[in-house]
Amino acid sequence: MADHNSPNYKDLYLQAEKGRQQAEEREKQEAERRRQAEERNQHTSFTELLQHCHDLISRRLRVETPSRSTTGKIPPPTGKDYLTRLEHWTDCPEQLLRVYRSVCKYLQLEREQAPRLFSPLLELEGLSRRFARRPLSSEQDLE
Fold first, then answer.
1. Which ranges of 42-142 would DSSP assign to H, the alpha helix?
2. DSSP assignment, residue 63?
């Protein structure tokens, strides 16, 4: 005759095992969150900086329609550098590629991890949010 007051050890074991698995999963998730937070807070390499700036800032910039942009007379650029004429820059891609390769060669030591000298991802995400608040509509927005 079975005692109805005695514990069912199989059920107790299964409950304990389920609790252990859930705790293990929570630990894994917490470790992953910590890893991601550390990654977002660490400085970036040159190539990471370029990629993040492209993804987070350049692609998200918006410009206001001309009818809602600054109007009126433009004040003289006193104390600022400014262009006096525009010319077609025929070898722009080649020059940019040379500069890029030169910077990469300077910063990236062969067979070693690229140095992390630039702003962390978290900082770039903050800039991205700031720039995404509203479209650019004046010179002041560019400052």
1. 46-56, 92-107, 121-132, 139-142
2. B
Sign of CA dihedral 21, 25, 31, 35: positive
Mean of the pLDDT values across residues 96-115? 83
Q: Which residues contact 39 (CB under 8 A, 6 or more apart)?
A: 121
Q: Which residue has the tokens 């918006």?
A: 62
Torsion of CA 130, 48, 64, 143, to 10 degrees: 60
Burial 110-139 (b: 16+ CB within 10 A, else e): eeeeeeeebebbeebeeebeebeeeeeeee
CB 104 within 8 A of CB 47: yes
**Tokens coding 133:** 């608040």
Q: Find all residues with CB under 8 Å of 82, minimum gap 6, and list them.
A: none
Domain limits, the chain: 43-65+97-141
Structure tokens at 91: 């070898």
Q: What is the CA radius of gyration of the chain?
A: 28
Global pTM exceeds 0.90: no
Residues 7-58: pLDDT tens digits? 788 888 999 999 999 999 999 999 999 998 888 899 998 989 999 999 998 8
